[in-house]
């Protein structure tokens, strides 16, 4: 599992309640919801590095090519 940076967050109680409700509506933990919000905001602002598309490994085709 990827290591996560821990950060103590001070947040207005009304914001916390809104995030808590949103997380419950989306069946996420509050931590996962906060990460979703931050990631989405960074993506919209163009602040996330371009990621490579996922690579899929096809073991069957690799085995048949080498046989």
UniProtKB/TrEMBL annotation:
Top-level taxon in the UniProt lineage: Bacteria
Gene Ontology biological process terms in this record: regulation of DNA-templated transcription
InterPro entries with a match to the protein in the record: Arc_rbn_hlx_hlx (IPR013321), Ribbon_hlx_hlx (IPR010985)
Region (Disordered): 44-67
UniProt biased composition (Basic and acidic residues): 55-67
Identification of the protein by name: Arc family DNA binding domain-containing protein
